Amino acid sequence: MKIVLQIFKIVLIALLLYSVIIILRHPHKAYYKTNDAYIYSNGNASDSDRSEIMKQLHAFQDGYSKRDTAQLKPFMEQLFSQENILVLGTMPQEILIGVEKVSKLVLSDWKSWGDCTFLMDNAHISTAGNVAWISTIGYVKFDMSRFLILPLRLSAVMVRENPVWKFQYMQFQFDLDFTFLLFTLVVLMIWLPVSLLVLTVMIVKRVRLSIKSEAQLPCVGDSQE
């Protein structure tokens, strides 16, 4: 029985490690070295619209590459609409509405998040009138650990404002696959009550053995007689 339990523990640890590896892998890494492949298709934007939007996308990447906080104000003025802005960050609480809050997020990213690289040349760009929507991928190399690099998705909505394309909605998202983690969690949920049951049985056996041993000990008075 002990050998079976040890084997099960080893298998469980292996599953946990494998799930971490699966989660942290870059699902679209093959696209990182090319600028002529479109993971989400290239979209329906005309050549002229695509060219103008690409200028803004590269300016966005340039800002996130240089991370020059002194250029934050012109960066925001050049790239973001001043009305009805919504940006969603990678964390659940990062819901930023308005220029001021979005500026604080960008400033925080530049100061302490990491080096972001987005595949702007590979972006899906579609338009309908004065509205455009964009999707692409990328990755972030964290400042806190240069060995931690996670894949990203970037999606956005842009509006044409006399006649410059500017961001009005944007979402940063970690491009991670948690499918295998769900399986691991199910295994853990099964393993936990089983472990508690085994522990309870072991405790009961030890208590019974202790009581039995005490009952078999001779009394002090009996030994003197």
UniProtKB/TrEMBL annotation:
InterPro entries assigned: NTF2-like_dom_sf, SnoaL-like
Superkingdom of source: Bacteria
Domain SnoaL-like: 75-171
Transmembrane segments: 6-24, 180-204
Record-linked Pfam families: SnoaL_3
Keywords, in A-Z order: Membrane, Transmembrane, Transmembrane helix
UniProt protein name: Nuclear transport factor 2 family protein
Organism of origin: candidate division CSSED10-310 bacterium
